[in-house]
Amino acid sequence: MHPMYEANQAAGHSSTVFRRTKSAALGLALIAALGLTACGDKKAASGPAQQGQAQPPEVGVVTVALQNVPIVSDLPGRLEASRVAQVRARAAGIVQKRTFKEGSDVKAGQQLFVIDDTPYRANLQSAQATLAQADANLAQASSTARRYKPLVEANAISKQEYDVAVANEKAALAQVAAGKAAVTNANVSLGYASVTAPISGRIGRALVTEGALVGQGEATQLAVIQQINPMYVNITQSSSEILRMREALSKGKLASDGAAGARVSVYLDDGRKYPQDARLLFTDLTVDESTGQVSVRAEVPNPDGLLLPGMYVRVHLEQAQIENAMVIPQQSVTRNEKGNFVMVVADDGSVSPRPVQISKSDGINWVVTSGLKAGEKVMVDGLVKVGMGAKKVTPVPWTGSSQPAAQQPKPADAGKVEGAAAPAPAASAPASAAK
Questions:
Q1: What whole-number distance in Å separates Cα of residue 282 and Cα of residue 298?
Q2: Please, how many CA atoms are within 13 Å of residue 345, restricted to the half-sphere of its CB?
Q3: Radius of gyration of the chain from Cα atoms?
């Protein structure tokens, strides 16, 4: 190998070693500087902690308030017209005319159909003629009886002849009465040829057309009228639920204003609340043997005709209420083998577990009937901080924004605290404190 080439190669290797050594020295210097900075920050941060106590962690709390919580039952219901009348033909004949518009509102007494009344007019005329003949016979018999009366008193005629005259007068009176009844009957039959609405309401489609023969042997149905303002809501309620509610009312656990004071709200099939509140009419006394349900009926106004017979709705029925109850978020309640507990924050910031009695769920809240007092602060979030050893906390009003909506517990999630992700730490805090 050429000496000049060997010298150049040695020089290049020395340059590379020098650059690597320089880079390593710069890296060590940078690490040392960062280490000094971190130590300085640690000392600066640990300085205040050594001089005084750390600030208690903030936790979200709600202030307990007494209120009356209604007992609301969500029940299925079906709408029914308050009055239904079947329009039937009581006169036999051919339908000549329909005088109403299908699907319209009609008034009581309004003419709906016209049936051929020719035979009924003829019967009326015959009855009137018979009545006129009876009137003539009565006039003759009455005249004869009046003439015979002074004659029999003067013994000019026999008493038997006078008695026959009086009997003929009475028979003529009976014939007149029968004639009047026949005329009345003929008038009624003639009136049946003009079919009228028995009630006011909304009429459906016509069940017969012009030219149809009706009333032959049976009263043919012509149409149906339904009164849809107000409407009836037929509800079915579990008999066991009614029994529990009545037992609670008898023991004074619930308050009620009676059937007249029950509030009934109607919700349509799309979830919208109907603007008019219903009124509870009655609760049936008989339990359905096949379903174990009890029928309940309410009345709801329907001035705009929005509700139609046969529609299915949801009904919120408030029959009683819990007095002096407290409503707290569900995530504030923990559960262990001893029951339900909440963490109560005192005025000095100390935290202690408190057993509570839960009656029912109210949306995403629990209804508490005992264990708390008005004005006390119940911890909603921050239970993990207490479980990590915090002796005191700083209570702040809870707004619900600290928990994602996807993690908010639902009414069926009894005993779950702060979502399903952290049930164990929340439950361990009151359980250990309660022991």
A1: 7
A2: 27
A3: 47
- Rounded to 10 degrees, what is the CA torsion of 423, 424, 429, 431? 100
Strands 58-63 and 105-106: unpaired
The angle subtended at Cα 367 by Cα 403 and Cα 356, nearest 5°, is 90
3-state secondary structure of 154: coil
- Residue length of the chain: 435
Q: What is the pLDDT of residues 31-88, one digit of tens each?
A: 444 343 444 444 444 444 444 456 788 888 999 988 888 878 888 999 999 999 999 9
What does the pLDDT look like over 321-380, one tens digit per residue?
788 888 999 888 988 888 898 989 998 888 888 999 888 888 788 889 888 988 899 989
Percent of the chain topping pLDDT 90 = 40
Amino acid at 416: K
Amino acid (one-letter) located at 26: L
- Distance from chain centroid for Cα 104: 29
Q: Please count the other Cβ atoms lying within 10 Å of the Cβ belonging to residue 30.
A: 10
Q: Give first-to-last CA distance, the chain, whole Å.
A: 90
How far is 138 from 174, CA to CA, in rounded Å? 9
Which of residues 77 and 4 earns the better pLDDT score?
Answer: 77
Edge to edge, what strands does the sheet with 111-115 contain?
194-196, 111-115, 93-98, 213-214
**281 — pLDDT class (breaks 50, 70, 90):** confident
Write the CB contacts of 70 (distance below 8 Å, at least 6 apart in sequence).
Answer: 263, 318, 320, 321, 322
Q: Which of 235, 372, 411 is nearest to 314 (CA)?
A: 235
State the pTM of this model: 0.60
Residues 379/61, Cβ–Cβ less than 8 Å:
yes
The encoded tokens of residue 207 equal 């069940």
The full DSSP string for 274-319 is: PSSPEEEEEEEEEE-TTT-EEEEEEEE--TT--S-TT-EEEEEEEE
Q: Tell me the C-alpha distance between 230 and 260, whole Å.
A: 17
